[in-house]
UniProtKB/TrEMBL annotation:
Residues 8-18 have a biased composition (Low complexity). Keywords: Membrane, Transmembrane, Transmembrane helix. Residues 19-33 have a biased composition (Basic and acidic residues). This is Cytochrome C oxidase subunit I. The keyword Membrane applies. Residues 1-33 are annotated as: Disordered. The chain crosses the membrane at residues 40-63, 83-105, 134-160. It comes from the Bacteria.
Amino acid sequence: MLAQLVRPPSGSASPPSDDAGRSRRETHPAPKRGEVRPSLVLAGIVAAPLAWIIQICICEALASHACFPTEHPLSAPELTALLRIIAAVSAGSFVVGSLGLVAAWTSWRAARNEYADSDGPNSAGLRERKRVHFLALVGVLGSFIFLLGLLLTAMAALVVSPCARW
């Protein structure tokens, strides 16, 4: 079995190559697999939801502590810069979510190009190309939805007073 990894089986023509790395890429079932970075796919799927969760956790914790430091609620927050802090956290979260959308979009375009270059429905590696294309598309759609959530959460936090009763 080790001999098969080192040299091709007899009777099959090996692709011409000037170096071993290029030969491996040409014989791999998905030769353009290197165009889609797994880290970009992961960032596209995870960045925007994490940014939204962090925004909610930080803003809600700050608002609750500033408005309810004891058993009785206050009419105005103790922390005078609360709205500026909430705006800064929301802006930073929106930037992180936007970077996640850019990563998802980049990986989706690379996966789309790789998927379009497939040799046909029976080509080897088609399942892997479909999987990467699907995950990249999930990242684009999910990032867009969570960016909308980030924007609406920031608007709610800045429009409604943090110490008001809901």
